[in-house]
Design goal:
- By secondary structure, this protein is of the alpha/beta class.
- It is built from 13 helices and twelve strands.
- It folds into three domains: about 45 residues, lambda repressor-like DNA-binding domains (434 Repressor (Amino-terminal Domain), Orthogonal Bundle); about 140 residues, Response regulator (Rossmann fold), CATH 3.40.50; about 140 residues, Response regulator (Rossmann fold, 3-Layer(aba) Sandwich).
- A six-stranded parallel beta sheet has the order 2-1-3-4-5-11, with helices on both faces. A six-stranded mixed beta sheet has the order 7-6-8-9-10-12, with helices on both faces.
Length: about 350
């Protein structure tokens, strides 16, 4: 039943009352007999009906265009979970006339990102939802939208010197501190730390959550100032190439006791360590995606920060739809909880 989208008239038919009666019960207005109210409420509970807060009565006859710009992704990856939340919100909440277009860019190629932003801008949408990866490229696009008085919402990453209508994501600096605390608790004393990042040969504006990195480093410097923090730019589009770069890094740096990953690719490091038969280096990552969860449960990843990407996508769309239909602007910074997963808790985690 949960895959069926019930409408008010469906509830009326099932409860054997009029559409007007159902409407009065849902919106708690007008008089309804005790028996009719009981029938409607029981039917709503039985089918799990959730009335939309974006009623067409708010929207009139106006239609809207929404453009969503995200990194390219495969099923089960981080941005796929964001897209699932986006589509869930569009399905459950939107009763206004709305055209939705998706634009996807290569998250390893800032030039392609610029090209996709240019194509997205040509759409002249009423609002944009953006999943930023590149700092400078996104900033230019966002400033262009601001100049044209077009509202936009960021999910996952906030971009400096921009003016979004809303942002939905973690408070990154605190997340970095938490990752540092977890790594300190599980790695061998006297060993070094490796920060695993993306390899980008032609761009240095990859967000990779600078604020998260700053929180992480600041905590280590205050607690263990003698610890060496080393940087490995190993993540590429190709997992085998990433492994080759890690080979070079770990051969040169033999005292690594802990690895931190600020994006959702901790599973690549975990698979590399399994291939090498190495269980001595601790890993703290981000992203409760299926690949990371599997390595967490297998013991190769010690802790995961879960950012709730489905929730971010859902709430980003909710904010835009509410602005379209009721002209209500959300607060700008909407921070999601910082969830910490270990292998014993992974099976019970729900991002919503």
């Amino acid at each position: 039943m949960k895959n069926i989208r019930y409408r008010i008239k469906d509830i009326a038919q099932l409860a054997k009352v009029s559409v007007g009666t159902v409407d009065r019960v849902i919106h708690n207005r007008g008089e309804v007999s005790v028996e009719s109210r009981r029938k409607v409420e029981e039917t709503i509970a039985k089918v799990g009906y959730k009335p939309s807060i974006f009623s067409s009565s708010y929207a009139g006859l106006k239609s809207y265009k929404l453009v969503i710009v995200l990194p390219q992704h495969h099923e089960g990856e981080y941005w796929d979970l964001c897209e699932q939340g986006i589509k869930k919100a569009l399905f459950e909440l939107s009763k206004i006339k709305i055209e939705v277009n998706f634009f996807l860019y290569n998250q390893f190629d800032p030039v392609h990102c610029d090209e996709i932003f240019a194509l997205a801008f040509i759409e002249s949408a009423d609002a944009y939802l953006i999943g930023p990866v590149f700092q400078e490229e996104t900033k230019r696009f966002a400033n262009k939208l601001t100049e044209n008085n077009i509202p936009y919402v960021f999910i996952d990453n906030m971009v400096e010197s921009s003016e979004p209508m809303a942002f939905f994501g973690m408070e990154s600096y605190s997340c970095g501190i938490i990752q540092a605390r977890m790594l300190i608790n599980c790695m061998l004393p006297g060993t070094d730390i490796a920060v695993m990042s993306y390899l980008l040969t032609n761009d240095n504006s990859y967000i990779e959550n600078v604020s998260k990195k700053n929180g992480f480093i600041s905590h280590f410097q205050s607690c263990l100032p003698q610890t060496k923090i080393l940087y490995s730019y190993c993540f590429t589009e190709n997992e085998e190439e990433s492994w080759r770069l890690m080979d070079h890094f770990f051969l040169e740096n033999v005292n690594i006791g802990g690895v931190v990953v600020f994006n959702s690719r901790a599973h690549i490091v975990a698979s590399y360590f399994k291939m090498k038969g190495n269980r001595n280096i601790r890993i703290v990552g981000c992203g409760a995606i299926p690949n990371n969860i599997a390595w967490l449960k297998d013991g190769y990843i010690d802790f995961l920060i879960a950012e709730r990407p489905e929730y971010q996508g859902y709430m980003g769309i909710r904010a835009i739809l509410e602005f379209f239909s009721r002209k209500i602007k959300p607060k700008v910074n909407n921070f999601t909880p910082i969830d910490i997963l270990v292998k014993e808790s992974a099976d019970f985690y729900n991002s919503f």
